[in-house]
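Weekly puzzle thread! Below is a chain. First person to post its structure in token form gets bragging rights.
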Amino acid sequence: MRIAFVSIPRFACAVEVLRSPQLARQPLIVGDAEQPKRVFDCSLQALRQGVRSGMAFRKATSLCPEAVVVPADPVIYRNLWERVLAALDDITPEIDDQDPGSAYLNVSGLERHYRNERALCQRIIDAIKDASGLAASVGVAGGKFTSFAASVGLAPSQLEIVPLGSETGFLAPLPASLLPVEPEIIDRLCILGLAQIGDVAAFTPQELQSQFGFEGRRLWQLANGIDEEPLHLKSRAESLSSSMSFEAAVAGIDVMVAVAKQLLSRLRSLLRGRAIRELVLQAELTSGRGWERRLVFREAVSESERLAFLLRSTLQNAPPPMAVRSLSLRLSGLTGETGKQLSLGERGRLQRQLEESIRQLKARYGYSPVFRCVDVEPWSVIPEERQILVESDV
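Winning reply:
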């Protein structure tokens, strides 16, 4: 098997530089929106000054006070990476998606459609550039680890191909810290003076097993370019999407609701009798940042009235923080419609109204504010132990 590792290092920073090219020559820190605030990503210049992803924001700015700080925009990052995956899917359907900015591809046999593997790698780089504007590097080898190691140190748009049978020699001078094993094992390799992968490969499997147990044999295999880990393929779920851009920024909620309903109307005919399990509403703000609201349903929904009600409630209860330039709607988790036995009489109608009200409260707050009593120890002499309150979905 031939595996290609596609890498766009520091993906969030690469996207921010793509949006604002003047950031390319400056230390950059991308901060998340959570509290306490931490580093979401950082540029190579900031990395060299000690900044790391996940580091407390205050410590990062003290290490690199001259860094330009921008807020993270996960909506834009995810959408751009989805474009990259769609472009790669046109080349090979077997994709092991790791994180935004890295993926393994099964490229076995594809070189027959190109002049050679180098032309295939260049096709991958060009496809990513055309789809996203980002420059990727590609390493190709006979296994996941060797292909990853081949991509380490490559500049954007560069490629590295490890011929079959040369894996051990290629890996030998590389640092042992690249080996995908537990940090404790890397520390022990350092204590033993095994700084390079070739130092590890020089031992026999039995010698490594005597020091590292079952992991010893895997260490020997990885150091010799033998990686039996398969690709973990993720099925790409079918989805329907539609968007609308505005000539002038829109801030009115009523206008947004009307546009969202129009987008839903466009997609309704494409459902062809199917139901959905997830609804995603996105907007591009006037600041250039992204805004997103995602609703996941416990049961598949197909009723247009309910979907329109959910869209309206979402925009009214949690509107975008500023005017928007565009609005998009995506329906995913497509499945066949299922029948539901309806109750007769007034009680059934009131029950459905109650269930819908609780769903909307849960969509707004992220949890159900309605609780119900459940018997735990009804025989207990302590009243507080007889029943407990649990969150209710109905």
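Puzzle host: Confirmed. Bonus trivia for everyone else. Residues 345-365 form the longest helix (21 residues).
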